[in-house]
Amino acid sequence: MKLQDTLTNSEKTLDTSHKVRIYLCGVTVYDESHIGHARTIIVFDVLRRYLENRGIEVNFIQNFTDIDDKIINRAKLENVTADEISSKYIEHYFSDFDGLNVKRATDYPKATEHIKDILDFIQKLINKDIAYTSKNGVYFSVSKFPEYGKLSKKKIDELQSGARIEIDETKKDPLDFALWKFSDVEPTWDSPWGKGRPGWHIECSAMSIKYLGENFDIHGGGRDLIFPHHENEIAQSESFVDNQFAKIWMHVGMVTINGEKMSKSLGNVKSIKYVLDNWGSNIIRLFCLSGHYSKPIDYSEELLKENLIKWRQAETCYYELIHSNNEKQSDNVISIVKKISNDFDEALEGDFNTHLALSAFFSLVKEANRLAADENLGINDVKTIKPEFERMLEILGLSIPKISQEQKQEIDKMIESRERLRNEKHFAEADKIRASLNEMNIELIDHKEKTIWMKKENIKADIWT
RNA sequence: GGUACUCUGGCAGAACGGUUAUGCGUGGGCCUGCAAAGCCUAUACAAGGGGGUUCGACUCCCUCGGGUACCUCCA
Hints:
Blueprint: E1 2-5, E2 10-13, E3 20-24, H1 35-53, E4 58-62, H2 69-78, H3 82-99, H4 115-127, E5 131-133, E6 137-140, H5 156-160, E7 177-182, E8 196-198, H6 202-212, E9 216-222, H7 226-241, E10 246-252, E11 255-257, H8 272-288, E12 297-299, H9 301-323, H10 333-349, H11 354-373, H12 379-396, H13 405-423, H14 427-439, E13 442-446, E14 451-455, H15 461-464
Parallel strand pairs: 3-4, 3-9, 9-10, 11-12
Antiparallel strand pairs: 1-2, 5-6, 6-7, 7-8, 13-14
The chain binds one RNA strand through helix 1, strand 9, helix 7, helix 9 and helix 11.
């Protein structure tokens, strides 16, 4: 598989001959997660699902940054402890992302549970004379890492002249960043240099190397993390291990809202809770995968609506597949499905082009629906199409809502009565039954020889769009 | 101001130095008791502006312009 690497600005081949090790920078847990977080995490979720589907083992680590100024400030504001804030938002994180059908990572290490590793990490940097202690904390000396700026393509002297850097006289160089911050404000931990807490970037370096070892396969996150977060991680980590930190740097583009930046000051932040509530996980996932991961995507109701229409087609396809009962068989279904399946895989192999993979998925949907429309979808074709359809659903993380056996029987009974009434030309009565099924979100599809039903996913936004 | 990314038809979005992308939308049709769903079919002077390289550029180069992100809060 080829992936765009931010560091070398070129496509790199992912080595899948062994277990693939991925580290994804997760969230700082001080507030609700939003659609931007969702996109990044869904992209990595699908990457992981795809690799696993190919039989490749994946060690997928995603951290929680649970100690940070923002958490402390929030705690102060709400008059609770930092731990209460982070625990609360970790809980919300899981409810949001379970709702989005994101598979749980192999592990979710937390900064506060790895203080020892962080301290060891810092000590080694001090020993190597790459970090130093000053009045306010322990700092990484950027001048000791000549390659600083290589990820973000920034020049050190240009950064130094940047007007927005606040001059801190206690640092040797304005670019030096904190590994450890001295503080008396709880929570704090003891360290050989003084009581305090870790700086922002150090936890990812310490935890990724601890869980994945040196030179792991993919390090990812949102584009906005390239600088300073990932730049600093590289500086720390490569000073620490004297080896390449990560093989491929994979960055996911931002989500804009109607062309504007999503920000609290603009009041246009779309929380996962909100989008999930209105659109459901399938539509959100389709939306998040509708563009190439490295490019920005724009959130708009119009685009979500487009994905809703597509999702309805996929639902129809599913119910056509499970209700097929005729013996007909079309000649070239096997070769068509094989080609579509290939297209799907090739799209993902080639820089993880989820948009192209989606078009392959929808051409499979179309193929099945076309056969069904012509009354030609036989059970032998279903044997070919359904496993592939389900494989794609699994990789994309899409799911058809389940329906109980009792409900199925009830529906079948209602359809039977309606059939009887239709045969007797009591259409008004028959239509009443159809209407009451519609109210249960059951859609009837009248084929020539039989009537089948589908359970439409209940999507709030469907009504107001 | 600097750096990176980006600019394709009403919208979304690919590939490719020379061939219809595709999807949504829109028009028409099929199916139906009527619908719905689905299917079929038609539909686009498309390439941000201007130069250049080339037999030929959406694709390569230059330039101008727009957008987004980052420049120690950020997925």
